[in-house]
Amino acid sequence: MKVLHVEAGRHLYGGAQQVLYLLEGLAAAGVANVLACPRGSDLAQAARASAEVHELAMGGDLDLGLVRRLARLIERCQPDLVHLHSRAGADVLGAFAARRHGLPVVLSRRVDNPEPRWLVALKYRLYDRVVTISDGIAQVLLAEGLPPNKLRVVRSAIASEPFARACVRGQIAAALGMPGDALWLGVVAQLIPRKGHRYLIAALPRLVAEFPRLHVVFFGQGPLAAELGRAVADAGLAERVHLVGFRADLADCLPCLDLLVHPATMEGLGVALLQAASAAVPVVATRVGGIPEAVVDGVTGLLVPPGDSAALGEACRKLLGDQARRRRMGAAGQARMRAEFSPAAMVAGNLAVYRELVTTVL
């Protein structure tokens, strides 16, 4: 079986990291992978050991030339199936290219944002199967009219071993510019509105007053960087909140956190939550989308309503003030990641979808 994968993400986190896990697992299972991704993307280099990589210009939803470029790639590579992994034009335009050649098309849906029913009725005709990374996303699509026979749920995966390491706190403190003896609260998310950083900033003055050793790290980059920096300064928290951007050493940083907070207003599943649990870090997050599938409330962390700074702050207060509870939740989360979110299970789930559509038997 040969599969053409299309991923428009440029950085190796979130969906692109899931694609890399999938490529590696499929290659081990004997699938021939072809990857189309943006020129200069991090995934292009990382995937060369498990896929034939083609770097293409990908300009988003209005880049109609992508249909032609992908169609030419299909003509050259002759895949049995096309798997579209991201939006930003790759979902619809990639489907047009595949349909031009009569190939079956699989779409991975990683976000839970709603779409109008009329759009679902039109757009999802393009796909033979829609694979959601959580039950939460599946329920959104079903409510909008997606035919159940097209829908499959295959949860995102986490290779937990790289995150299950000891914290070298002095080294990481120096790298992040933080005091080594502080309580460390982290947020790992793109700096975009739906990740909800503003709700944590609103809760921080009271938390800092109660926990004088508290320091907060925002890992990630995005268009809100300057705005969030101003909000932190306006709240008088410039010495307590550190915006450190994208970190390639996240697997070293996460085990040093005392608590991970994810105040998103929308979330498909939340790979950062899986990474934190793998590092034995408890989580405070919102009860939206697929997050309740990643965080077991009261067992591996605490869940609060979205957009509620008071509830968010109270949940953080409970865990910051109880080290023994944090350790229990962290250990429970780590054990759950190993049992339920392995890359092998994710690869098997996607491969089963392919076998529904392609008669080739591996």
TrEMBL record:
Domain Glycosyltransferase subfamily 4-like N-terminal: 14-157
UniProt superkingdom: Bacteria
Pfam family, one: Glyco_transf_4
Keywords carried by this UniProt record: Glycosyltransferase, Transferase
Coiled-coil region: none
Record bears the keyword Nucleus: no
InterPro entries given in the database record: Glyco_trans_4-like_N (IPR028098)
GO function term, MF aspect, one: glycosyltransferase activity
Protein name according to UniProt: Glycosyltransferase
